[in-house]
Design brief:
7 helices, six-stranded mixed sheet, Metallo-beta-lactamase, Chain A, globular
């Protein structure tokens, strides 16, 4: 791009490391498993070049916005990973509303309402996990009962709070991360282990669900590594990578792209969708390294390559090989471009 603005952060010189260079720790053996299901939460549409640098300037990109329902089989606990957009979108704070036209969010119900429509009592959701603080993931946490707790990644509170209206420039509401119901993971006081390509916190202590430290998009960005069968895993990647052209190790070479860069006129420099692009690329490489494993499938929040090709809640994901085959076929055909 030629905006005339300086690339003070060196964004144009950065790239994703080779996934094969990422250090790998064997995934642990275990029998405790979780059920994982896709819960469509809406969709977005944006200028394609915001996401993919190689895109035509005026081309559009439609992206689904997904939540995931997780059920821990040993305890019966139900969790939700990410909440999609708010419904109605008029509930956002002013700092978010002013930019919504650039994303055209389409959402017809809260995640809580979608659960109710499928016969699920929201009170059965004991914990909600947010991959990060952005508006298309925080949804309507205040629609859950007081008994539901929230988990966010390290550094999220400092980056997001205080919320609106206490801070008129905040991009989250005070009710999005309420005091007393929000647990922030700590890189210091919580236990983290090397698992696969990342550092993970064993949420249940039985090796069935690890919360992965995957910073870069935001400081507090986390993903989830979930065992769905004794030797099958799903990585819920949040916004580690917004499109498979950015990170997928099997994406056709001719269609791959670095992260989109745009003119940040308010700061007089080039900017991108990630708070720290170098860290974001490192996290993308970790996601790609997970995806190289035949028994692991990586699903991002805006995973257009699986739409219509996978079961949705209340049906859960069971066949990793079939999911990977569907994605690979669509990558090769140029679907969801």
């Amino acid at each position: 791009m030629d905006s005339g603005l300086p690339d003070r952060l060196g964004l144009l010189d950065l790239s994703m490391p080779d996934p094969k260079s990422v250090e790998w720790t064997a995934l642990p053996e275990g029998t405790a498993v979780c059920n994982v299901a896709i819960l469509p939460a809406g969709e977005l549409s944006c200028t394609r070049s915001l996401i993919l640098r190689s895109a035509e300037p005026d081309a559009k990109l439609r992206m689904p916005d997904a939540a995931f329902v997780i059920e821990h089989e040993p305890s019966g606990e139900r969790l939700v990973f990410d909440l999609g957009c708010k419904c109605p979108v008029s509930d956002y704070p002013p700092a978010v509303k002013q930019g919504l036209a650039n994303w055209d969010p389409q959402v017809d119900a809260t995640v809580v309402d979608k659960l109710k429509q499928r016969g699920v009592d929201p009170a059965s959701v004991k914990r909600v996990i947010l991959s990060h603080k952005h508006w298309d993931h925080v949804g309507n946490f205040d629609a859950f009962p007081e008994s539901t707790q929230l988990i966010v990644g390290p550094g999220t509170k400092a980056a997001a709070l205080p919320g609106y209206p206490a801070n008129e420039n905040a991009t989250v509401l005070e009710t999005d991360m309420p005091e007393g119901r929000t647990r922030e993971l700590s890189r210091e006081s919580d236990a983290w282990v090397d698992v696969g390509a990342a550092r993970g916190h064993d949420l249940f202590g039985d090796k069935s669900l690890y919360l992965l430290d995957m910073p870069g998009h935001t400081d507090g960005h986390i993903a989830a590594l979930v065992r769905i069968a004794p030797d099958s895993w799903v990585v819920l990647g949040g916004d580690t990578g917004h499109h498979r052209a950015l990170w997928s190790p099997t994406y056709p070479e001719a269609w791959r792209s670095p992260v989109g860069v745009f003119a940040n006129k308010s700061e007089g420099r080039l900017g991108c969708m990630h708070d720290d692009l170098k860290l974001a690329y490192q996290s993308m490489a970790k996601a790609a390294r997970f995806d190289l494993e035949p028994n692991v499938v990586v699903l991002m929040a805006h995973e257009s390559f699986l739409e219509g090709g996978a079961p949705e809640f209340p049906d859960h994901l069971t066949d990793v090989a079939a999911l990977k085959a569907t994605i690979r076929k669509r990558e090769a055909a140029g679907d969801a471009q």
